[in-house]
Amino acid sequence: MENKNLQVNNKVALNNLDLSMKTNIAGNNQNERHDSRQNSNNNNNNNKDPNSRYEDNANQNGRTNINNNYEPANPFLFSSSNNKNDSDSDEQLENVKEVGSVTDINPIKDICFISIIGEIEGHNSLPPQSKTTKYEHIIPMIIGAEMDPQIKGVLLLINTIGGDVEAGLAISELIASITKPTVSLVLGGGHSIGTALAVAARYSLIAPTGTMTIHPIRTNGFVIGVPQTFRYFQKMQERITNFIVSNSKVDREALLKYMYDTDEIANDVGTVLNADEVVDIGLIDEIGGFSSAMTVLRDLIDKDSNS
């Protein structure tokens, strides 16, 4: 038994010794191959012409300049050949699927485009399925356009059904108080408090198929039926009427007549006016589209720069 145990121990020792020798030999061979590759690279670098190194640097700089002068891909094109950055293209596609638009598009650097669409959301949040314009988003945009020296003018694109009266009036007051030239374009409709937003700009236009609804303010939900509630609504209506009259060419009596008309709208008070009618009464300055609005805005910018 002792002889058998001794033989087994000797075999284990020999196997371990053989394995360690093979490992050392393999490691030495790998180090030799690495040293040979390094020496060959050093020899190639030493034998290379110094001028060729300058050529390599020039070629590398040329590639760098080409990359620096590379124009960004058109965000409206979503093919892989046009969008080099896959993460950016994926983000743009996600924006299109979620909100129906591509962000960070600013084709003209000196004009700020602000769109007021859907329903104007004020202090209370509207249902998620409603298309809204949040006044806490629009107000910083207007302030940024006023403070940015690169911005020369502001173009408002309006297609709204109205909404929160105080929020719409706050945006209108801010638009009317900035020093940069402002032009508004009513596309589709500028209803309710959208009337004040349209006339807040220095010059206003409406599309040939545009309409505007003029009516007194109203509310829904719980209302306390006391004389104080009526006086509150009366004061609020007076604020809106004074703003519209002071920022447009409309006659006050004509505006009130259209506002309290009971024969135009079923089950409601007010008047729906088309493009020709709002221009005739002096509420909007001109009938036109986007190109006309841009021409007017450029003219206002030139007048301000000359003066």
Mean pLDDT: 77
Helix and strand run: HHHEEHEHEHEEHHEHEH
Write down the domain tally: 3
CATH architecture classification name of the largest domain: Alpha-Beta Complex
* Widest sheet: strand ordering: 2-1-3-4-5-8
Query: pLDDT under 50 segments (min length 5)?
Result: 1-6, 50-55, 61-71, 73-84
* Name of the CATH first level of the largest domain: Alpha Beta
Number of strands: 8
Q: Give the strand content.
A: 15-25%
Report the structural category.
alpha/beta
Quote the CATH topology of the largest domain.
Answer: 2-enoyl-CoA Hydratase, Chain A, domain 1
Q: Roughly how much helix do the residues carry, as a percent range?
A: 40-55%
Computed CA radius of gyration, to the nearest angstrom: 36 Å
The first-to-last residue Cα distance is 116 Å
Q: Count helical runs.
A: 10
Q: What is the quaternary state of this protein?
A: single chain
Principal-axis shape: globular
Largest sheet: 6 strands, parallel
> What is the assigned CATH homologous superfamily of the largest domain?
2-enoyl-CoA Hydratase, Chain A, domain 1
